[in-house]
């Protein structure tokens, strides 16, 4: 009787251990399936449960890291931060014991990200160069406007000075003409005052 009880307990123990292993294996498999379906958040949740059951499961841990970093890649891509996306993809390539499917995808995507990053750097350099050219043109234009303004001011000053000189010259001519007219009158009537005196003297006495 005792032997039967011991046998039953042993069988139950084996059965329970088998169920536990099967449950753990199912969590890891579900986590892998979610990961390779690009459902990274779900994969992280499932694989986290697997690690709670067995913290030493290297496959579960590796795939959890893959899911986390692939999630980061998607985030950085949406911000067009290709440099950070490249860093995450390179880290995925170096993860051991993870999903080989995800590792291959990361390697393929890494090439694309590097190409996009190079194009981004080229575009940034072109924008900087164009900004320099535009700034240089703006400086030249501003300098030209200053030169034109200075020339206009100088011309206005010269015209004002010329007008002032002409006004002075005209005034001088008027004064000279007045002086000449007075002299001419005196020459044309030299006996004017003498004749008047003679006429008064020669008047008959009454």
In short:
The chain is mostly helical. The protein has helices at about 1-35, 40-55, 60-80, 80-95, 100-190, 190-200.
Written overview of the protein:
With 206 residues, this protein is mainly alpha-helical. The chain is built from six helices and no strands. It has helices spanning 2-36, 40-53, 58-78, 82-93, 100-188, 192-201. The chain is rod-shaped. It starts with a helix and ends in a 5-residue tail after the last helix.
**Uncertain regions: pLDDT < 50 for 5+ in a row?**
14-24, 195-201
Query: Mean of the pLDDT scores?
Result: 81
Please state roughly what percent of the residues sit in beta strands, choosing from under 5%, 5-15%, 15-25%, 25-35%, 35-45% or over 45%.
Answer: under 5%
Order of helices and strands: HHHHHH
Element layout with pairings:
Layout: H1 2-36, H2 40-53, H3 58-78, H4 82-93, H5 100-188, H6 192-201
